[in-house]
Description:
Helices cover 42% and strands 20% of the residues. By secondary structure, it is of the alpha+beta class. It has 3 domains: 60 residues, CATH 2.40.50.140; 66 residues, DNA polymerase, domain 1 (Orthogonal Bundle), CATH 1.10.150.20; 46 residues, Helicase, Ruva Protein, domain 3. It has a 5-stranded mixed β-barrel. A hairpin with a 2-residue loop joins β1 and β2. α4 packs across α6 and α7 crosses α9. The longest helix has 14 residues. It is globular and about 45 Å long. The termini are far apart. About 8% of the residues have low confidence.
Amino acid sequence: MIARLRGTLLAKQAPTLLVEVGGVGYELEAPMSTFYELPEVGREVILHTHLQVKEDGQTLFGFAQPAERSLFRLLIKVSGIGAKTALAILSGASVDEFARLIQHADIASLTRIPGIGKKTAERLVVEMKDKLGTGGAAGALPGSRGAVPNDPVAEASVALQALGYKPAEVSKLVQAAAAPGDDAEAIIRKALKSALRSG
Length: 199
C-alpha cells in the first residue's frame, strides 16, 4: 500500500495531480480541499494517499491532511458511496463541516451534494454518526481529464462538472461566485460553499 508521497508537484488540473518522486511520476485524484492547500507547480508537496484497486485498474488518491484520507476511507465503506461521490462530498464541505451536517442530521444540505439523494443522505447519517467522533477525511474522484482552459471561469466550470454538477447548475454557480481577479480555485471554493448552503 502506498500511504504517503513526498516529491515535486509537476501539474495540477482539478481533480488530477502529477507528483514526481525519485524520477517516477504518480498521477493522483484529489478533492478540492487538497487543491486549496497545494503549493505552486515545481515546489515540494507531501500527500497522504489511498490506493484503490479494481478490476479495471488502480487509482491513487491524494490528500493534504490525514483527517481527509480517514474520512474518505469511511465514506467509501458506506453502501452507495463511491470515490466520485466521496470527492464531491469533501470538495463541498470540510471534515468538520461534514461532521456537523451528520451530527445534526442535515439531510437538506447533504442532498445538495452531487450524487446524494435523500435515501443516501439518510444512510450517511445513520452509518456515519457514531464514526465521526475523531474527525475524518476527504475523498477522491476519478473524473474528467480533458484539457482545462487557462481562463479561471472556464477552469472552474470544468472542475465543477467533474464533481458531478450539471452544466446549467455550473453556469449559475460560477456566474454568482466569480469576481474580478479571482483564480479558478477561489471561484470553485465560493461556488461549492454556495451550492451547499442554497436550495
